[in-house]
Amino acid sequence: MNFVLAIVLFIGYGFIDGVPVPEVGEVAETSPAEEVGLQNGDTILALDGQEMSDWREVQEYIQNSPDEAIAFSIERDSSVETISITPTAVYHEPWDRDIGQIGIIPERDNGVLLVIQNSFIQTYEVVELIFDVLSLIFTGEFSIDMLAGPVGIYDVTGDVVALGYEMLFLWAGMLSVNIGIVNLLPIPALDGGRLVFIGIEAIRGKPLDPNKEGMAHFVGFALLMLLVLMVTWNDITRLFL
């Protein structure tokens, strides 16, 4: 139900804010796009001969091509033409690398089918992002600063509300996916841990000792509460001390 709720919230966000599509909605002044004559309403069909079906593909291709000329196949006034644009290299701190930017804002569409389809894609992307972070545990790059407890979530929620109520749909959907993923982790005291015990019982062909299972859930719950306390204290020291 956490995932169902996330999809519903993402649908609400899509209807309010729209879904970005590969069509130019606005061109920034003095940008690479303006310099070559890209115009509002131009539809991006392909980049370097590769067909683009949605805005995510366009954005990813541009970001991965800093200072590299890209052949834009665009549709304008029912005719197709090709324009070469070289994205400007801009340092992106979270990724610790340069990304390409050409200075356009995409048009947004809130068609029913597009919004519903996009809600499933957004849910998948959040799941993928969470597992990318969890994978850092095995590479030694994980830090407790990457986690946020109730205090941290409260602080971020205040910032999100200031951006507009439509962003609250997006944020709540992301939180719902997070809760769903965490609850499915194979940790005793969580649903994921219970599923592990059910799997063990299925393999053994007989139930486990209730006392041993209860102790495992107790220890898991205690460790989980310890993690919550550590994360909460980390949030307090980061935000208030």
What does this structure look like?
The chain has about 240 residues and is of the alpha+beta class. It is about 55% helix and about 20% strand. The chain contains eight helices and eight strands, in the order αβαββαβββββααααα. Helix 1 packs across helix 4 and helix 5 (about 150-165) crosses helix 8. It is elongated, with a radius of gyration of 23 Å. The model has no long low-confidence stretch (mean pLDDT about 90).
Topology (elements, then pairings):
Layout: H1 2-17, E1 19-27, H2 32-35, E2 43-47, E3 50-51, H3 55-63, E4 70-76, E5 79-85, E6 88-92, E7 97-101, E8 104-109, H4 112-139, H5 150-163, H6 165-183, H7 191-204, H8 210-240
Antiparallel strand pairs: 1-8, 2-3, 2-4, 4-5, 6-7
Helix pairs in contact: 1-4, 1-6, 4-6, 5-6, 5-8
Quaternary state of the chains: single chain
Proportion of residues in helical segments:
55-70%
Main pleated sheet: 4 strands, antiparallel
What pattern of helices and strands is seen along the backbone?
HEHEEHEEEEEHHHHH
Q: In terms of structural class, how would the helical and strand content be classed?
A: alpha+beta
Give the strand content. Answer: 15-25%
**Spatial strand arrangement across the major sheet:** 3-2-4-5
What integer is the average pLDDT? 90
